[in-house]
Here is the input.
Amino acid sequence: MRQKRGSSKKSGAIAVYLFYRSGEPLVALASGRNLPIQAETLESLLAVVGNFVETSVPGSRGYATTAMRYEQLGIVAVRGEFVIGAAIVDGPAHDALKSDLVRAVRDLEERHWRNLSSWEHATKVSGAASEELSKLLRTAAP
Here is the structure.
């Protein structure tokens, strides 16, 4: 797993997730040994937020973003046309992470839109998505 030098200071995610637009998980990665929030729990949280975003921005084709707190963690989420990306941070700085996550979701959808018509097809790009999203993870302390 290759990471760019300095990306840990830029984003600092301790975990990243990718869900299909209907909520099924596609990718779940952590910078440590365990995920801080299980994908099913996070999907439930994002479903509530996602419903709010969908009803408050009808007909939007852009990338809706949101940020929230869950216990002592911060959650940043981006809803694209086909997928929802989410990242967990354990600190207050999430603005850089938000723009990195938007870019990752947008790039993934642009490159793989042909395989995103259904969850079954989307599973074919989970390897490429894992590689791209892993760049947002905080690296271990030197």
In short: Strands lie at 13-20, 25-30, 64-70, 73-79, 83-89. The chain has one domain: 7-134.
